[in-house]
Design goal:
Blueprint (H helix, E strand, L loop, with lengths): L7 E6 L7 H11 L3 E6 L3 H4 L2 H8 L10 H7 L1 H7 L2 E7 L1 H9 L5 H8 L4 E5 L3 H5 L1 H12 L3 E2 L3 E4 L5 E5 L3 H10 L10 E6 L4 E4 L2 E3 L6 H12 L3 E6 L11 E4 L3 H11 L5 E4 L6 E3 L18 E3 L3 H7 L4 E8 L3 H11 L4 E6 L12 E8 L2 E9 H19 L1
Parallel strand pairs: 1-2, 1-3, 3-4, 4-5, 8-11, 8-13, 11-12, 13-16, 16-17
Antiparallel strand pairs: 6-7, 9-10, 14-15, 17-18, 18-19
Bound molecules: ligand PMT.
Ligand PMT binds next to helix 11, helix 13 and strand 16.
Length: 400
């Protein structure tokens, strides 16, 4: 079982003798399912060549803040936003000092300042340097800012001495990194979710569908697992890998999704409806492909059951809906919150030209509940999903 499936990790490598261990760390992170981009300081390149990390990560290695070619491929701000977490291993005393003082004088230190992702450093240095009062003061400072410090370990050092200052072993670094993504916010809670589009068949080759990719729902399922929940995900036709530990039920049409929700419902505490369910489906599905005959063609549609409204009407589950809107986001979302008797609704714009909403890695959510509101600004869906799960956990606990 992988511990970092789909996680986007920046591995920062600074210039110490333990830099060679970062190559093994990179391999292990990839084995655990992470997508890793490596950023090296100039002095790290004196110990290990960028080519080693390029070959092991499958991506070009970033070394220079002012490299126009690298900036054109993925600029440092984009890289900072891309990361789900940054791990600097090994982190030298010099790098820790710069981090503590907020000095951004190379690519790696700039990225650390420019990213809101969790940031961890794994110190590796001579034990006297580690115990020096300035290093200890810098470590205290970065801990106070909620940065994570992994290690160091006690043991034999490259200089021939013994003491505290060794880089943690690779499996320990991987475990500690994985633990950044888990919390117990929803332990002992069962979540039933829907995600993706539905396809309403017209004939054997055509259907009515929409642009939902399922990414938002799958990201929420992943975040819910990280929060300790037990998750059943009813997915419309999407081509996404199932997050680890999630029970997935595949459906095609709104009717199939409706039926699956009904049969799974009694095993849940929270229902999250991310799916873009078709409101209407053809009255009749033709058994053979419809041939073109006249200049115009009409299709008679019937209303599909509103799955979310039905679940909310039972009054037994904490229900979270989504509202996909092209206009009047707030009014429409608040109307749906009240009309469907939901505990919470997350509204998103879906008809802008911006890279957001349907079929994008990004989204922005306005979340409403009976007497409150929170705006989650445009971010990667994985990041938004974690924030939404935190909000759901907080309100669910208040209600119980
Ligand atoms: O899948 P992605 O590409 O990542 O895109 C994410 C998303 C834009 C699809 C997602 O964030 C989103 O907005 N999902 C809800 C889309 C939608 O159908 O919104 P709606 O306003 O039409 O429906 C309101 C709510 O009722 C939704 O929670 C919907 O799941 C639910 N519904 C709607 C109709 C129906 N027959 N049954 C339902 O349960």
């Amino acid at each position: 079982m992988q511990t970092l499936p789909g996680k986007q990790i920046i591995l920062g490598v600074t210039g110490g003798i333990a830099a060679y261990k970062a190559a093994e760390l990179l391999r292990r992170l990839r084995d655990e399912g992470a997508d890793v981009r490596v950023v090296m300081t100039q002095s790290a390149t004196e110990f290990v060549t960028p080519l080693t990390f390029q070959a092991l990560s499958g991506h070009p290695v970033h070394t220079d803040l002012l490299d126009t070619e690298a900036e054109a491929a993925m600029g440092h701000i984009e890289l900072a936003r891309w990361a789900d977490a940054i791990l600097v291993a090994p982190a030298t005393a010099n790098f820790i000092a710069r981090l503590a003082q907020g000095i951004a004088n190379d690519l790696l230190s700039t990225l650390c300042l420019a990213s809101t992702a969790p940031l961890a450093v794994a110190p590796a240095m001579n034990h006297v340097m580690w115990s020096d009062s300035s290093t200890q003061a810098n470590i205290k400072l970065i801990r106070e800012r909620n940065l994570h410090v992994f290690g160091p370990a006690f043991g034999d050092q490259a200089c021939g001495e013994t003491g505290e200052g060794r880089l943690l072993e690779v499996p320990q670094l991987v475990d500690q990194l994985a633990s950044l993504f888990s919390n117990e916010l929803l332990s002992n809670t069962r979540i039933l979710m829907t995600a993706g589009p539905t396809y309403e068949a017209i004939d054997p080759v055509r259907f009515i569908g929409n642009h939902s990719s399922g990414r938002m729902g799958f990201a929420i399922a992943q975040a819910a697992i990280e929060a300790g929940a037990c998750v059943t995900l009813i997915a419309g036709p999407v081509s996404l890998a199932t997050p680890d530990k999630v029970t997935r039920i595949d459906v095609k049409s709104a009717a199939e999704m409706h039926q699956a929700v009904q049969s799974e419902l009694e095993n849940c505490d929270i229902f999250i409806s991310t799916a873009a369910v078709a409101d209407y489906s053809p009255v009749e599905v033709q058994a053979r492909k419809i041939k073109k005959s006249s200049d115009s063609f009409s299709l008679q549609l019937k209303r599909n059951p509103d799955i979310l409204a039905e679940v909310a009407a039972t009054g037994q589950y904490f229900t979270v809906g989504f509202a996909a809107e092209t206009e009047q986001l707030q009014d429409n979302a608040q109307h749906k919150l009240a009309a469907k008797k939901l505990d919470m609704i997350a509204a998103n714009q879906v008809a802008t030209d911006a890279d957001s909403g349907f079929n994008s890695e990004y989204n922005a959510l306005d979340v409403y509940w009976a007497d409150g509101y929170l705006q989650l600004e445009r971010a990667r869906k994985t990041e938004l999903a974690r924030k939404l799960i935190e909000l759901i956990a907080e309100h669910y606990k208040t209600r119980h």
